[in-house]
Amino acid sequence: MKETLEALETVDKYTELFYGNREQIGQDDPAFLNELREEAIRSFQETGFPLKKQEDYRYTHLEPVFDSDLSVHFRPRDISFDEGELFRCDVPMLDSRVLTVLNGFFYNPEGESLYEQENGILFGSLREAARRYPDLVARYLGKNASLKQEPFVSLNTAFSQDGVFLYVPKNQHLERPIQIIHLLLSDRNQMVHHRNLFVLEENASAQVIICDHTLCPNMFLTNSVTEILIGENADLNVLRLQNEHNNSCQVTNTWISQERSSRCFHTTITLHGGMVRNNLHVRLEGEGADTHAMGLFLLDKSQHVDSFTLIEHTSPHCTSNQLYKGVLDDTSTGAFNGKIHVYPDAQKTRAYQSNNNILLTDTATMNSKPQLEIYADDVKCSHGATVGQLDEDAMFYLQSRGIPRDETRLMLMNAFAGEVISTIRHPALQERITDLVSKRLRGELSRCNNCAMHCHE
Amino acid sequence: MLQIKGLRVSIEDKEILKGINLEVNKGEVHAIMGPNGSGKSTLAAALAGRDYFDITHGRMIYQGRDLEEMEPEERALEGIFLGFQYPVEIPGVSMVNFLRTAINEQRKFRGLDPLPAGDFLKLMREKKEIVEIDSDLTNRSVNEGFSGGEKKKNEIFQMALLEPRLAILDETDSGLDIDALRIVAKGVNKLRSPDNAIVIITHYQRLLEFIIPDFVHVLYKGRIVKSGDQQLAKDLEAHGYDWIRQEVDMET
């Protein structure tokens, strides 16, 4: 009984917060956005907040975090902040276009809020895009019905005011990758929402890198949604690098919808973060679509990372491949719940899933749960999960050649992580990530490496 | 160079080596032969520093130092090399990365700077020729997908690179066809020098046709029961191990 009451409290708290600030949220926004918001808050009230006892959230207790005292801001705060001086992203890409989102708001005071290329490609602030091109954004935003059943997505739809919009029209190719840097910077504990929308029309292609960073030791709670629509024969690569400090909580909800013959590679690499819950939902709508979902999480201390994936095969001849790997040290905990749902008409489906984990201590814990629901009869599906330690024989072999034991452990951990990194379809980026992962495993990469700011309380 | 005195080794309360005495000097090649289960691999493992057994008695002295006090990597850096009977596969660790790390650890130990990439590749090419190992094998992960013969050649290739003072080759000939055997033997012979020593652990005599040993010892039920020269190996080839078993069992 007490749990139910608590959950009601959380729902009430956010409902009140919404209506109490209704004017500020969505001021100057087009009507369709505000309609979406109203629908979303009602949906949130109906679905409630996921409780500890609910199967899908049994390993990750988010309620206490959402219930804690957090500031929420409905206007970008006036923080003067010199990107060049304060922050250097770990993944500097020579040829990428960097877009900064600061505390949930697109940040580019010196330049454009929405870039419009001659070939019709748009990228920049979602809020600005909704104002300049309401019909275009309305066509794609929040269209997926299943989105509406998800409490975190509903909460985000109600509260989110900005994020990144990427639109690649038919037959166009985004030449330079877009690098979205989500920054959290505040003098108090804060909750942040942001919403990204990526739309690739027929035959389009793009590469997106997303980096999540905290710049101050305050506690942050981010509830983000990224909606991705990939048209027929279009091609998208997404790499998400999570590097927030261990006092932060991050809930990411990524919803991908793919049309026929499209391809998507989505990789999530979690280097740091106190509590991270990554929800990934891919719906293969058209025949012959191909999707790859990869995850790599490197945990120590008392980090917790929960990867939840659902791949829906609704059409025949689609392929999906999931590879999630984790290295867990100290008292860190992790969870992987991978669902594959093959609909009755989805004949000739090929769906593969693999979750491999290495525990470096007796006190680290990993829970792995594959779920397959197959309703078609001519399919090839497989799943595998392993939880183990580093190979002693392999370490001895390396030691017997003069390599110190600690080094042999690192070599094996890097080899383990390498399988996921090798799926990144961009050689320079792959190299950079290999380097970052190697540093992380050595304990050389702390979140404060990038922050030159002196934080004040 | 190496003195083993009264070495007794047990695995989970079962005594495998029951008092081994062996002396190996610079420039010598020793062969240790014996039927299956005699303790040959346990002896190799004890010398290399594996830790799944207990040394209950005796000592192994290498260049004046007690081996038991040295970690496996230390033993390697001091010049001991173990050619494994079943070299393990290590997916994801490239041969080049592995060998370069090993060479550079060795150089660090000797107070030298790490070898630049170009020089290292040149060194690899030189040594590859000694063992006639395929170029593409070195582009792969350590031992991954290698055939039995390729794995053994890879062991000798590593021996060529690391230039050990004491090489212990554990059943290097097992699983090799006659051609591979010849190539491996040729490689080992090229590496023989007055400054190093080699201990060949083998079940069969045929490798010893190509690598002529100075001393041959027979290991039976955890003890060295007979020592001789190459002729002893030939006798074993001709008559098998039974006559040894009979001799020993009669005495006890």
Which terms would index this structure?
heterodimer; A: 457 residues; alpha/beta; 11-stranded mixed beta sheet; 10-stranded mixed beta sheet; 24% helix; disordered C terminus; B: 252 residues; Rossmann fold; 6-stranded mixed beta sheet; 4-stranded antiparallel beta sheet; 9 helices; 12 strands; 39% helix
In words, what does this structure look like?
The complex is a heterodimer of chains A (about 450) and B (about 250). Chain A is about 25% helix and about 40% strand. By secondary structure, chain A is of the alpha/beta class. In chain A, strands 1, 4, 5, 6, 8, 10, 12, 14, 16, 18 and 20 form an 11-stranded mixed sheet that branches. In chain A, helix 5 (about 125-130) packs across helix 6 (about 135-140) and helix 8 crosses helix 9 (about 405-420). Chain B has one domain (about 1-85, about 150-155, about 165-250): P-loop containing nucleotide triphosphate hydrolases (Rossmann fold). Chain B has helices spanning about 40-50, 70-75, 95-110, 115-130, 150-160, 180-190, 205-210, 230-240, 240-250; strands at about 1-10, 15-25, 30-35, 55-60, 65, 80-85, 90-95, 140, 165-170, 195-200, 215-220, 225-230. In chain B, the strands form 3 sheets. Chain B has a 6-stranded mixed sheet with strand order 6-9-10-3-11-12, with helices on both faces. In chain B, strands 2-1-4-5 form a 4-stranded antiparallel sheet, with helices on one face. A two-stranded antiparallel sheet of chain B has the order 7-8. In chain B, strand 4 and strand 5 form a beta hairpin. Chain B starts with a strand and ends with a helix. The chains are: A alpha/beta (about 450), B alpha/beta (about 250).
